[in-house]
Amino acid sequence: MNYDTLRPRLREATEACLALARSEIAGAGRLPPVALRFDLRGQAAGQMRASSRGRLEIRFNLALARQNPDAFIAQTVPHEVAHLVVWHKHGRKARPHGPEWQAVMRQLGISHPSRCHAFEIPDGEVRRQRRWRYRCACHEFQLSTTRHNRIQRGEQTYSCRDCGEPLKLSPEQ
User: Fold this and answer.
1) Which terminus of the chain is more solvent-facing, meaning fewer CB atoms within 10 Å of its CB: N or C?
2) Of the listed 80, 125, 140, 165, which one is catalytic?
3) Does the model's pTM come out above 0.90?
4) Catalytic residue check, 80
């Protein structure tokens, strides 16, 4: 299937899933508008993002969707819509694939919610991020380049769950 026919199918399936969420899930009736993008690459099949200004978007990986569009639509679309519903109802209080997300997935008709897809990743689509060593008083952590850059720009801080100390870049980088 080519990308020009896949995009409208994904758009239509997402709108149908959003309509189902609005009608079937308490508190989801006033879901804000969501932008759809088809620019996701790498290993992720889909991604729901909420900006600090409240703009919502769902991104899809067309390279993965192209391999098996029916399975992609049946699994990935409700997965990302469930993230949107959970964000709308609970904000950042809920874990990404926690009980709230699993309940919404079941309400969307997915009896066995899964946090990971089983789609084969085409050659050349895998991107690996460098890992950066960070430390606290009691542990060493390997953070991705994305998290490292957020820390460096001052957008985010990460703390150890055990000692509560903010993570600092290890001097032996």
Assistant:
1) C
2) 80
3) no
4) yes
